[in-house]
Design brief:
Layout: H1 2-9, H2 13-25, E1 29-33, E2 38-42, H3 44-53, H4 58-65, H5 69-77, H6 79-98, E3 102-107, E4 111-115, E5 118-122, E6 126-132, E7 135-143, H7 150-167, E8 174-179, H8 182-199, E9 205-209, E10 218-219, H9 240-243, E11 255-256
Parallel strand pairs: 7-8, 8-9
Antiparallel strand pairs: 1-2, 3-6, 3-11, 4-5, 6-7, 9-10
Helix pairs in contact: 1-2, 7-8
Length: 260
């Protein structure tokens, strides 16, 4: 939407709306009407022009940027989820920029770690790195769509708790578990607390319900709710496994934002 584009480009929504309108009239973008919202997608002509501007083969360009027809169809089929994750990150970026900071993120990442001599895989919905001067404040975002039974989340929770206790305070970020509803948040937090009682690592996990007022994060380890800028750890450097996945069986992410 024009509001999403404005947040991504850091421009006024009116300008973003005019830009989308112009792209539509030129046939470079096409409007897609969903049951709950109208979106704009890159057209075939737009893809060809973008690939030409990057001096890349169109098919390879589409594959590298996640712009293939299949990728766009998959996005539209789960557009509430995909837009929800991106809008959460865009809202956080705008808040950070208002304070003179910046935000970098990766979507669809995979990071491996070793626990008890066995390799495990973490697949958060996003890795976020909030930059404040020379410091970086990292987090992993786990998005609850509200359809997966809580008991099925436990295996995922076990992996995160094992990673937290294995990698330690200077190598493991905060994990933000964003729930679909307040009721789901309570259920997820209870399950996380139960897992952490056995595995450890409760101090790394926070939960919040999705809502128009914005997340208000509850520590799984206990205590009052706090804002996101009050709970993220502060590091002077980023561990290689987290940002690059080197030596951890890293696979390419589907989307990145460039550091600002």
């Amino acid at each position: 939407t024009s509001q999403d584009l404005a947040g991504l480009l850091g421009c006024h929504s009116d300008y973003a709306s005019r830009l989308l309108g112009s792209l539509g009239r030129q046939g470079l973008a096409q409007r897609v009407s969903l049951d709950w919202e109208n979106l704009y997608c890159l057209s075939d002509a737009g893809l060809l022009q973008a690939a030409a501007a990057a001096n890349r083969d169109p098919r390879r360009f589409a594959r590298e940027r996640g712009l293939s027809r299949q990728a766009i169809l998959e996005f539209l089929l789960e557009s509430r989820y995909h837009l929800g994750v991106r809008r959460f990150l865009l809202a956080l970026r705008q808040k950070a920029q208002a304070q003179g900071d910046s935000l970098y993120w990766e979507l669809g990442i995979r990071r491996r770690f070793v626990y008890g001599g066995k390799a495990y895989l973490l697949t958060p919905d996003a890795l976020g790195l909030l930059r404040q001067g020379d410091n970086v404040r990292p987090f992993l975002l786990v998005w609850d769509r509200g359809v997966k039974p809580v008991w099925l989340w436990r295996a995922t929770m076990e992996r995160y708790a094992m990673a937290a206790t294995t990698l330690g305070s200077r190598r493991f970020p905060a994990v933000l578990w964003l729930a679909a509803t307040p009721q789901r948040e309570g259920e997820l937090r209870h399950a996380l607390a139960d897992v952490c009682r056995r595995r450890g690592g409760a101090g790394y996990f926070y939960t919040a319900p999705l809502g128009p007022a914005g997340p208000n994060w509850q520590p799984v380890a206990g205590g009052e709710r706090r804002g996101i800028l009050d709970i993220l750890p502060t590091w002077s450097e980023i561990p290689g496994w987290l940002i690059t996945g080197q030596n951890q069986g890293h696979e390419e992410s589907r989307e990145q934002t460039a550091p600002e």
